[in-house]
Design brief:
Strand order of the largest sheet: 25-26-28-29-30-31-32-33
Number of strands: 34
Number of helices: 25
Shape: flat
Largest sheet: 8 strands, mixed, barrel
Strand content: 15-25%
Low-confidence stretches: 1-16
Radius of gyration: 51 Å
Mean pLDDT: 80
Length: 910
């Protein structure tokens, strides 16, 4: 690079005038501002007139409503005055005299108000009619003229129809003049008609002005129109000298802004009137002119303000551009030895642009010189970054420059070699990743994942990552914790693989659904511990007699499933027959020897279908058919319609019962042993089946769990129980409610949000709800289920371990979960009187639970002896038939009050 560079600006003609940038910006802004102002002046004036007319129409419509209300009020006063006159006792006496006089006399006409009228002070604020007419029934007898206007001839001998319509108010036209008629009958004390009084008032400008009471200003006119929609004319107006009668509407619309578009009736009138307000358009033009002048002044002010502000901003930024240009030249001269011959015909931006262009050329040259140095530093750091990253990721590195040789790069790789020896097989340039299993120095199985990264020079970098815990977690997520068999998730995955194999190679496969017979009786009689041992031995015995390609899975409870690849229906029957024979041999379970029966349903593909869900459903149908007929096993019959099967009919009825809310909740009290009070009610679901009678949960909950009905069923139970708890709280009972949850509930991510919403609706806190989960459910809970438990704990919901003692958990493990109480299984409570082991188990459980800060509930209390033992052991609450049987919600309050009376007698001083 030369020490100095001389750069001259382009030469410009001398005639070209260079102005500062702020002057150019000001001139351009002024031109645009004037153009925009003229454009707005041309567009805004008619728009302002339209807006003004619309605004005035809206204002006139509001005033019209007030004027119409006043007009209607004034019309009603006409009827009030008629009623006042008709009720006058003097009028009744006068009518009696008229009735006794001959009726062929001429009509008597009076110029002054009659003497029988009430004093004028009593009707001063009402309407002043033009005529008062007295009829002897339908014949006019007397006429009182209160104004000079003559009486219309049709009223001298009125038609009965006219008199009938005038009762209650009537508009009509008599001799081309609109009138308001009000007629009132006058009766004696016995209800006999004495005569009629009619008030007649012309609808003229005087009437219209009086009805408005000076509501209108001098610029606004009120008018009544009549006629058809397109031929309307003025009836009368508040300013007849300006708008005379019979003026057509089209003529008025040219001169006035008219509000009010619809006709209205009064009573049973034959005449429809339109009540409107008119505003002269000359006045509108004056207002529009004033508004335009004001708007024009505002636009001019805004334009001048904009130009001034932009001028100040332009001057400010022109000054800063000049300083920036000077600084740029200084940098170029000091660091890049550049000199500039500045032109006098360039503005600030042009000069700055030229300076920056030359500066960029110099920077590009400098960048080319620094590129090589940067590449050297980059490559030097690559290895350091890679080593630091692998240490942070717990990955070992080995560099293989030649086949069979390797150099350990990281400390973690040294640790792997010390723990497991030479675990890396140095292959000759491998191209695939693989896993390596070996034993470490503590005889523990270790699993490593090895990946290969080729380098440009042909060498390899081996990344060694231990995945022992990851593989173990994956295995646990896909296998049953009790039996070690694949769970439902893994079984469905294997079934999908078998289905894909059939789709590719037409390879058949069979499914067998298995269910143990009378397994519930084993649990209820011998306890859940023996039931778990039975499930383990059944799974071992079945697995021993299967091929390695077969998949035996535990789906839940005592339900198993078997996948037989490359097996048709007849072959699957042979397998089922063989397994049934093996299971018929007695099983030794501690001190018990049991023989368990099994029911199996067989379904094969493609003979019984090609859809996996239908195959599983049909195998399930065949299994229940075999259980019902006590066949041991049964192949699915294609002629059998699954929808007609008793089990599927029961599923559909259960779905309808949930949707129609025909299930029933019973409540069983829990008694506090320290106070004798009953503070908790456990909700127990029952199904009043129309055909099968009252069904226990064990009869239909498995159906709900297997057919995706458990979520809506749980939602209904929780919602109903919380709603009932809210009613008890409002009635002052202060009861808590306990609800049982199944293992499927802990897979519902919306459980905590649903409970939060239901509690908020009933204005309850979480502490008034207890959720009971079985011991095995808590032990088998996944990370998602653990998060749901934590969310419930944040709500304040109390969590209880149901059927405690029947699983394999320990209190020390359960203490890690947000559990508040444990519920000892009734199998231990029932054995307290006869078994020392059960007695010791109960006492130990109560003692340890209290040490861990948990409450203890004992269920299955059926005699007073067990209750006394539990009191001495320090149990907190008890539940059972000895306390109370489950009862409907409407009986709880009565039962609680009875128990309070009994408890008051027991604790009262003798």
């Amino acid at each position: 690079m030369d020490s100095k560079q001389n750069i001259s600006s382009k030469q410009h003609p001398r005639w070209r005038v260079s102005l500062p940038i702020w002057i150019k910006a000001t001139l351009l802004t002024a031109a645009l501002g004037l153009f925009t102002w003229q454009l707005l002046e041309w567009q805004q004036a008619p728009r302002l007139q339209i807006i003004l007319e619309h605004s005035l129409e809206q204002q006139l419509d509001k005033e019209l409503q007030t004027a119409r209300n006043q007009f209607d009020h004034y019309l009603k006063r006409h009827q009030q005055l008629t009623d006042l006159f008709a009720l006058n006792l003097n009028l009744k006496q006068h009518l009696k005299s008229l009735a006794s006089s001959p009726s062929d006399e001429k009509i008597q006409t009076h110029r002054r108000p009659p003497a029988w009228l009430p004093k004028i002070s009593s009707w001063r604020g009402l309407v002043h009619p033009s005529h008062i007419l007295l009829f002897d029934k339908n014949q006019l007898r007397e006429l009182y003229k209160l104004r000079k206007k003559p009486l219309p001839h049709p009223l001298i001998n009125p038609e009965p129809n006219l008199l009938q319509q005038a009762e209650g108010g009537y508009f009509t036209v008599l001799e081309e003049q609109p009138y308001l008629l009000n007629l009132k009958n006058t009766h004696d004390s016995k209800g006999h008609l004495l005569g009629r009084i009619m008030l007649l008032t012309p609808l003229d400008s005087q009437f219209l002005q009086h009805s408005q009471r000076d509501l209108r200003s001098r610029d606004v006119i009120t008018a009544l129109f009549y006629g058809q929609q397109n031929q309307q004319r003025v009836f009368t107006s508040s300013a007849p000298e300006i708008i005379p009668a019979q003026t057509p509407l089209p003529l008025l619309e040219k001169k006035y802004l008219i509000s009010g578009k619809s006709f209205f009736d009064y009573g049973n009138s034959e005449l429809k009137l339109r009540f409107s307000i008119l505003l002269a358009k000359t006045r509108l033009t004056e207002l529009n002119h004033d508004v335009n002048d004001l708007e024009r002044q505002q636009r001019i002010t805004a334009a001048l303000t904009f130009i001034t502000l932009f001028l100040l901003i332009s001057v400010y930024y022109a000054f800063r551009l000049r300083r920036l240009s000077q600084n740029t030249r200084t940098v170029c001269q000091d660091h890049f030895h550049l000199e500039f011959n500045l032109s006098q015909h360039r503005d600030e931006l042009s000069q700055l642009s030229e300076n920056i262009a030359q500066l960029m050329q110099s920077l590009l040259q400098q960048q080319q010189l620094n590129q090589d140095h940067y590449e050297i530093e980059k490559k030097a750091k690559q290895f350091q970054v890679l080593q630091a990253a692998t240490e942070a990721l717990d990955v070992g590195l080995i560099l293989c420059e030649q086949p069979g040789e390797g150099q350990v790069l990281t400390q973690r790789m040294h640790e792997f070699i010390q723990e497991c020896g030479s675990i890396i097989p140095f292959l000759d340039h491998p191209h695939t990743h693989h896993q390596l299993e070996c034993m470490d120095c503590h005889s523990q199985q270790r699993i490593f994942k090895i990946r290969y990264l080729p380098l440009p020079d042909g060498a390899l970098v081996l990344l060694v990552e231990e995945i022992s815990e990851l593989v173990k977690s994956a295995h646990q997520a896909q296998h049953d914790t009790l039996t070690g068999l694949p769970n439902r998730s893994l079984f469905m995955d294997r079934c999908q693989q078998a289905l894909r194999a059939y789709q590719r190679n037409n390879t058949p496969f069979s499914l067998i659904q298995m269910d143990l017979n009378k397994f519930k009786e084993v649990n209820d009689t011998l306890g859940h511990h023996i039931g778990d041992l039975l499930l383990q031995q059944v799974s071992q015995r079945l697995h021993q007699h299967l091929r390695s390609v077969d998949t035996l899975a535990r789906l839940g409870g005592d339900e198993f499933a078997l996948l037989l690849p490359d097996t048709n229906g007849s072959q699957a029957e042979e397998v089922a027959k063989h397994l049934q024979q093996k299971l018929q041999k007695p099983m030794q379970l501690e001190d018990h020897s049991l023989t368990i029966g099994v029911s199996m349903g067989i379904c094969s593909a493609p003979s019984n279908g090609k859809d996996l869900h239908k195959l599983l459903q049909r195998a399930d149908v065949a299994m229940y058919d075999a259980k019902r007929k006590q066949l041991g096993y049964k192949l699915y019959d294609p002629k059998q319609n699954p929808d007609d099967n008793e089990r599927h009919q029961l599923i559909n009825e259960l779905r309808e019962a949930i949707e129609n809310q025909t299930l029933e909740l019973l409540f069983q009290p829990q008694q506090n042993l320290s106070s004798g009070q009953h503070t908790v009610m456990e909700a127990l679901i029952r199904w009043p089946h129309p055909r099968l009678g009252l069904m226990e949960p064990s009869d239909f909950l498995p159906l709900a769990e297997q057919n995706t009905l458990i979520i809506p069923l749980t939602s209904w139970v929780l919602g109903s129980a919380i709603e009932q708890c809210g009613q008890w709280q409002k009635s002052g009972l202060g009861l808590k409610v306990a609800v049982n949850l199944t293992s499927h509930s802990l897979q519902n991510e919306n459980l905590a949000a649903f409970i939060r919403t239901q509690l908020a609706i009933q204005e309850l806190t979480g502490t008034q709800l207890i959720l009971e989960l079985t011991e095995n459910t808590l032990m088998d809970s996944s990370p998602r289920a653990r998060q749901i438990l934590d969310d419930l704990d944040e709500l304040g919901v109390q969590l209880s371990i149901d059927d405690f003692g029947t699983g394999y958990s320990s209190l020390s493990y359960l203490q890690q979960l947000p559990v508040n109480e444990l519920k000892i299984d009734k199998s231990f409570i029932l054995g307290m009187q006869s078994s020392d082991n059960d007695n010791l188990t109960v006492h130990s459980s109560i003692y340890l639970a209290h040490k861990f800060g948990m409450k203890v509930v004992a269920e299955g209390i059926e005699d007073p002896g067990v209750l006394d033992k539990l009191k001495k052991a320090g149990c907190d609450r008890v539940q059972g038939y000895y306390i109370a049987r489950p009862m409907p919600a409407n009986q709880v309050e009565k039962w609680i009050k009875q128990q309070e009376k009994v408890r008051a007698k027991e604790f009262s001083p003798s």
